[in-house]
Design a protein that fits this description.
Helix content: under 10%
Strand content: over 45%
Distance between the termini: 18 Å
Largest sheet: 5 strands, antiparallel
Number of helices: 0
Radius of gyration: 13 Å
Order of helices and strands: EEEEEEEEE
Length: 111
């Protein structure tokens, strides 16, 4: 997982995103565009958490989620404000804890 900066925006690359939450930004921000590739034969969801605290996937309620169907690679335009920070994880349901059978490869543009 790596973060790289672009003028005015930043990009967070989450290769092998699974059900362990990762911190994208530890201060308020806006998630603008998410691109993910789901190699799995099952739908997987990227969950977004508005916190800088500890996240327990499946217990901590996500602020936002986006589903990616079977073997889909797609972009999602979001423009969602986060007042504390941005953390993300992938799971088999929109609010659950189960890990996808194959990790997602994602990149998130944010401010």
């Amino acid at each position: 997982l790596a973060q790289s900066s672009n003028p005015g925006n930043a990009a967070f690359k989450a290769n092998a995103l699974t059900n362990a939450a990762v911190s994208v930004k530890a201060v308020p921000g806006v998630a603008s565009v998410l691109h993910c590739s789901n190699p799995s034969s099952n739908t997987a969801y990227v969950q977004f958490f508005d916190t800088i605290g500890a996240v327990t996937v499946g217990v901590t309620a996500p602020k936002y989620f986006i589903g990616f169907t079977t073997q889909q690679s797609a972009d999602a335009i979001m423009n969602v404000n986060f007042t504390a920070g941005i953390q993300i994880a992938a799971a088999t349901t929109a609010t659950g804890a189960g890990a996808p059978d194959q990790a997602l490869n994602c990149s998130l543009a944010f401010e």
